[in-house]
Amino acid sequence: MVHGPARRALKQSDIVAREITRRIVAENLPEGTRLPHEKEMVEEYQVGRSTLREALRLLETRGVVSIRSGRDGGPVVRRPRPTDLGEALTLLLQFEGVNFSEVFAARRILVPRLARRAAERITPPTLAALRECLDRMDAYLDEPAVFRAERQRFDKLISNASESPVLELLNSAVGSVAEDADRGADPDRFTRTQRAAMAREDQAVYDALAEHDPDATQTAMAVRLASDEKRANAARRDIAGRSVQWALVEPTGS
Hints:
This protein is 65% helix and 3% strand. The chain is built from eleven helices and two strands, in the order αααββαααααααα. The longest helix has 22 residues, at 100-121.
């Protein structure tokens, strides 16, 4: 079980950071928007420079702003990404001593569930886009980079079709944690025959989606995940048994 300290009282810098975040969201400021100069923000929030700078550093660690250096530098709006949550989750799991097998287990729950929801909601345009991905995978079996990109697009389309933003975000974060392990299942590590098998697994998922069959879709996706994990374990010497690490270092001789 994950343990943590009792909630502490908010510092002034925390309050300012939250106010800045509210403003960014309320005004729908696009990524790359430059925030006001330090002097203006100090006056607006009625705090000292050190408090403002601490607030901005906090927002930078949360992925809400990026701090540019130089004469024209300063805080710039940045949209938080699923990988930001993935990094935080990776650190938490590392301190808890969690193995990649547990990450894979969570993904075996999340991904088929997303696919199941997608089967209930998928639209003809999305099916057409998935069909295009499959066709390109078949056409580029000899070009691993293209094959990989199309497979990633295939997964993203299904995830989006689920219309479940929270599950999508959780799945992306868990996928980010598993990124190092997944490199063992990258299509460019395998033969043309093995990539063809991957494409057939994706075809089975597509067929179930096209029939709007939630049960069949969930099963097909579960089968595909099991195959991907088996390939990853074979390629990376049972990565599932290793502990999650923020920066996974390839063992000597791998």
